[in-house]
Design goal:
The strands form three sheets. A five-stranded mixed β-sheet has the order 1-12-11-7-10, sandwiched between helices. A five-stranded parallel β-sheet has the order 3-2-4-5-6, sandwiched between helices. A two-stranded antiparallel ribbon has the order 8-9. With about 450 residues, it is of the alpha/beta class. Helix 3 packs across helix 17. It is built from 19 helices and twelve strands. The termini are far apart.
């Protein structure tokens, strides 16, 4: 059974004429599917080639097998797309049933000195390997962490021991990390040209930490290939990526400028975080492809299972009608936890006895779904038959393709991120990087402005 996109509760028949999307509204785009698909594919989408790049899977598997035989811990040094995809895979699929190689994987994205030093202090460096991941090779946060680790490893194990404990994943030909990796004679894996960080989960950037954790990356890629077949169909109602993109695009135009991704599995929380970057960074754009100022985008928010039924649901049920909800539901959890029948006669206890946590969390998700629908709040869900590698591959690929289609619908470029570049340049200037002296001067003047503090 494949991953399912259930959009029943986005339609007028479920949530009412004012709240839902009618067949007439969707029908306005019916017949343009091939045009949308052609426009997206005309932009040369190298991420769509990744499920078929067997050479990447082989090189990753070979290196992971070698390293996992010696090391028990991997620390992935990367940020954004260089970390979120791998983290999502490891969270969802590693563990007692999936992690046969017993390698623990850490993803210290934030350069918080307290948490990073705490992590380093906790490691058995003798049994730890580090992957440093940067497509450009000049990411400030990743470079800073790597410099700390590089010095630590050389001091402890010497140049040879340092080389044994680092894998660089970066551009195969250019960039400063590539240059240093060659100078230091590090083992490397390619970060393919033309693949942006947030679309990189199915390349070595995401696959290496997954393989180190014992995940069957060939099954992940098989799932992506199966979804690719479904995403190339021109019939709107048979193409889950195109339908997802169109329905969220139409929801946005009806004033629902926020999409809440709501996993009912703790193991899928990083998968929701991965989507937040993908949707926000790809679609949040000031200018259209024609140069017009449009301020496009839809804000992704993450909620978590029953936790946020007791935290955010009140807002979603009765607050502003500016959100569309997308649940991440799981049919079969890996583990069944029974609630013991202790013979307690108190009503608040007795009805739960003899049931399972599995049935409770499913009931909670369906009750929340129904409550939202009754309140006229549009919602949909992506349903995982189970948390398996093949279904994670389907999930990543569906949403990547949907994002590309959504870019065509919004008439923006979903593959650039000009809005984050200014902050990077200012950071370079403040940290004294050569060539960014003007940014340091600009920042110095900015700090002189009169402040209002209490």
């Amino acid at each position: 059974m494949p991953l399912i996109f259930d959009y029943t509760n986005l339609l007028t028949g479920a949530v009412g004429e004012k709240a839902g999307l009618s067949e007439a509204e969707i029908g306005k785009l019916d017949g343009t599917e091939e045009k949308i698909i052609r426009e997206a594919e005309a932009k040369w989408l190298p991420f769509r080639e990744l499920p078929y790049r067997d050479e990447y899977a082989k090189s990753v598997s070979d290196l992971a097998r070698e390293c996992a035989g010696r090391f028990s811990t991997l620390v992935n040094l990367g940020i954004g797309g260089s970390s979120l995809g791998g983290n999502a895979l490891v969270s969802a699929l590693a563990g007692p049933q999936g992690n046969h190689q017993k390698v623990s994987v850490f993803f210290p994205e934030n350069v918080d000195p307290d948490s990073f030093s705490r992590l380093l202090d906790s490691l058995d460096l003798e049994k730890t390997i580090f992957s440093v991941v940067s497509k450009s090779g000049s990411t400030a946060e990743t470079t800073a962490q790597f410099l700390v680790v590089r010095d630590l490893l050389i001091s402890r194990f010497g140049p040879g021991g340092y080389r044994e404990r680092v894998v660089a994943i970066t551009d195969p030909k250019k960039g400063d990390l590539r240059r240093l990796a060659e100078e230091d004679r590090l083992r490397t894996l390619p970060f393919p040209d033309g693949v942006g960080g947030r679309f990189s989960v199915l390349c070595p950037a995401g696959l290496f930490p997954a393989a180190m954790a014992g995940i069957d990356i060939n099954e992940v890629l098989a799932g992506a290939r199966e979804m690719d077949k479904r995403c190339r169909v021109s019939d709107l109602f048979q193409n889950p990526a195109l339908l997802f993109a169109i329905l969220l695009y139409l929801s946005n135009h009806k004033g629902r400028g926020m999409v809440v991704f709501w996993p009912y599995s703790d193991l899928l929380i990083p998968a929701a975080d991965w989507f937040r970057q993908l949707w926000a960074e790809s679609l949040g754009k000031r200018n259209s492809v024609d140069g017009a100022v449009v301020h496009a985008g839809q804000t992704p928010i993450r909620a978590v299972g029953v936790t946020d039924q007791h935290s955010q649901l009140q807002l979603y049920i009765e607050g502003p009608r500016d959100k569309v909800i997308c649940f991440l539901a799981v049919n079969d959890y890996r583990t069944v936890v029974e609630i013991p029948d202790a013979g307690i006669k108190i009503p608040s206890f007795s009805y739960l006895q003899g049931k399972t946590l599995n049935s409770l969390i499913r009931a909670e998700q369906e009750a929340t779904e129904m409550s939202l629908t009754k309140a006229g709040r549009p919602n949909c869900k992506l349903v995982f038959p189970r948390l398996a590698a093949i279904h994670l591959g389907e999930y990543f690929y569906l949403l990547e393709v949907a994002t590309a289609f959504a870019g065509t619908l919004f008439q923006i470029d979903p593959f650039d991120q000009p809005g984050v570049e200014e902050g990077k340049k200012l950071t370079f200037g403040m940290m004294g990087r050569e060539g960014y002296e003007d940014k340091l001067k600009e920042f110095t003047e900015w700090r002189k402005r009169p402040g209002k503090i209490v």
